[in-house]
Each structure stands twice: as C-alpha cells, then as structure tokens.
Amino acid sequence: EDVAPTVGFSKVDLKQGKFEVTIFDLGGGKRIRGIWKNYYSESYGVVFVVDSSDIQRIQETRDTMAEVLRHPRIAGKPVLV
To answer: What biological-process GO terms show up in the record (predicted)?
Structure first.
C-alpha cells in the first residue's frame, strides 16, 4: 500500500488522560521547509520521517536533517528517525 507524502502541513491535538500532545505534521518539500523553524521553539521533540525507498534524495534528506539538528532550538531535544 502506498502512503502519500504530506503536502503542506496539518495539526492534530491528542488527549489521553492528563496528557495533551499537539502534533505538527510538516511536509518535507523544498518550498515548505522554510516554515519548519517557526515550530521549533514549541516542540519538545522531533520525528523525522525518511522515505528510504527514494534513493535519489537520500543525500538531500541527510543534509536537511543535519541542518535541522544543528538549529539551536532543536539542540538537546529528543529526535526519532
């Protein structure tokens, strides 16, 4: 089954008992990456999803992830790849 990539962004609010979590699903296209940093200060962690079947973009993905991890507002926060 194919899974479509995120186009643009979406927000989901989850509540389980006393825990509340907001998930921002931000697309990975070059045109939307510029807004990512607007969400860094509100984030307590990052889930970085990689399309490992897209071999042609692996280096671009690696570079993008390295840039995200170097950002001062992400440094020290948990990251799941």
So the answer is: non-motile cilium assembly; receptor localization to non-motile cilium
